[in-house]
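Weekly structure sync, notes
Attendees: PL, DS, HV (note-taker this week)

Item 1: Agmatinase
DS walked through the input record. Source organism listed as Dongia sedimenti. Sequence as pasted into the shared doc:
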Amino acid sequence: MNLPTGHNNPQPVDAAIVPRFGAIPTFMRLPYITEPTQVDIALIGVPWDGGTTNRAGARHGPREIRNMSSFMRKVHHVSRIAPYELARVADLGDAPVNPIDLMDALKRIEGFYAKVHAAGAVPLSAGGDHLITLPIFRAIAKKRPIGMIHFDAHSDTNDRYFGDNLYTHGTPFRRAVEEGLLDPKRTVQIGIRGSIYSGNDMEFAEKSGMRVIYMEEFAKLGVEKTIAEARRVAGDGPTYVSFDVDGIDPAFTPGTGTPEIGGLTTLEAQHLLRGLQGLDLIGGDVVEVSPPFDQTGNTALVGATLMFEILCLLADASARRRNR
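Item 1 (cont.): predicted structure, written out as tokens:
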């Protein structure tokens, strides 16, 4: 989509004119637009946690992330990327969900994202639990499998829960590989840690070819070498960034459903994301923000800030594709 860029693009409400606590809350204080053909990058909420296996509440994540995104400004202070000058960005509202029927919810979410993808818009989403990434992949990766850079405490490649339940927030990437949506050899998982159900829990991820960087290895590698490894695995192909906030230590993000101590710091998370600039990024999400478990709002602030970091990467990638 060869759209003009610059000052005619949608712009956030200026906090120097309208205070952050004013105006209707949208992602990054951008206009609310319902037509995906009018944007390069679509900011979307998915208020659904029907795949949660323990502590629910991530359905409330998009609303609180919208609130906290009012703290974001227009230009990245390190890269100097000005995303709203590079791409047309707007809040497309929330994907339709069904809080009662899981399979129907997956179909509704997929259908919404299929329209976004058909319009040529790149999705950046706020969850919701991590199962939301599966219907997003079903919408954007039907023609060819994509790569993924995945930040998380958990691999999310389990097979099933509670008998024959194949669809939970612990299974999306196993299903995505099985459905031919995700290329495991172009997938890297960063920050994996915590106790597991059995000794073979990680067997699928490792045998399928995913590069799993456990937190202990990250501590030895450091940020720069981890970035280099992630870039090596992703290569030049289309790649998606998925960030579960439980990848960060719960000292920083207590408001999540499955916290695991010993995780990334918020600064490490920012540096890791910034190191992905230049890759062919085609979408991203920030998931598992559960506001009921953090009344301070800090976890939602982390979620909003990570969304802005990913937005800058996507805007840069969008501009580079346009100028090829």
